[in-house]
Specification:
Layout lengths: L1 H8 L4 E4 L6 H12 L2 E4 H10 L3 H12 L5 H13 L7 E4 L5 H13 L6 E6 L2 H15 L7 H15 L2 H7 L3 E5 L4 H16 L1
Parallel strand pairs: 1-3, 1-4, 2-3, 4-5
Bound molecules: BIS(adenosine)-5'-tetraphosphate.
């Protein structure tokens, strides 16, 4: 029973990973309800700050509009503040974070300060041409500057391969990497991810 209790108390902290348009935000919205986890989307926090014209928003906008990453120092302190807003969380879904090696280190440090750790990286695997098609589709209605133009979308995918994809190795080494096919209906993909989470919690 001691082991059972320890397992019960352990937090479930998921990194939802994948290229732009892989469906991280879409899946996180479903999974946070299903597993009662706190969802932190760095992209959403930046967009909220842009909309409200805060200093953080003004700082982030010039990078995001071009499809570049927001600098690490800005992103890491913002993420820490979001985690600190939720001291009672049973666990977190990190959506769009980490995106660089420095961010992965910062997340490991932050989790260890909270006496917990990242449980798993769940990586949504989707081909580039499907990504471009999805993001152009969203751009027709989202009003997002970074979805409006194919060259910006392709730049975001390029940045992903240059700076973010390497994180697969980081979590593979820790035996925490789970690749999931990200093509199919939203429900099918939720089901595939749920199998991974249920196994972790099992
Ligand atoms: P994000 O907001 O993280 O967004 P995203 O890359 O567009 O991807 P996501 O994978 O969440 O896609 P979604 O579910 O919405 O990043 C935006 C920008 O913010 C970055 O470029 C960067 O500038 C900045 N930023 C964010 N985090 C940062 C960090 N840590 N460091 C530095 N900068 C950072 O899905 C996309 C589309 O696909 C939607 O239209 C959706 O409806 C569709 N879709 C989803 N699932 C589908 C499915 N199964 N089938 C068909 N379509 C599907």
């Amino acid at each position: 029973t001691q082991i059972y209790k320890l397992k019960q108390e352990r937090m479930t902290n998921l990194v939802l990973f994948g290229p732009p348009g892989a469906g991280k935000g879409t899946q996180a919205t479903v999974l946070k309800e299903k597993y009662q986890l706190v969802h932190i989307s760095t992209g959403d926090v930046f967009r909220y700050n842009i909309k409200n014209a805060t200093e953080l928003g003004r700082n982030a906008k010039s990078f995001m509009d071009k499809g570049h990453l927001v600098p690490d120092d800005v992103t890491i302190s913002m993420l820490e503040a979001e985690v600190d807003k939720n001291p009672e969380a049973k666990g977190f879904i990190f959506d769009g974070f980490p995106r660089t090696a420095a961010q992965a280190e910062a997340l490991a440090d932050l989790m260890s300060k909270k006496n917990t750790e990242v449980s798993a990286m769940i990586a949504l695997e989707v081909d580039d041409e499907v990504l471009v098609e999805r993001l152009l589709g969203r751009g027709k209605t989202s009003g997002r500057a970074d979805d409006a133009d194919e060259s910006i979308i392709r730049n975001r995918i390029k940045v992903y391969y240059e700076e973010t994809a390497i994180l697969k190795q980081y979590y593979l080494k820790e035996d925490k990497y789970y690749g999931v096919n990200g093509v199919g209906s939203v429900e099918e993909i939720t089901q595939r991810i749920s199998e991974v989470i249920d196994n972790l919690q099992g």
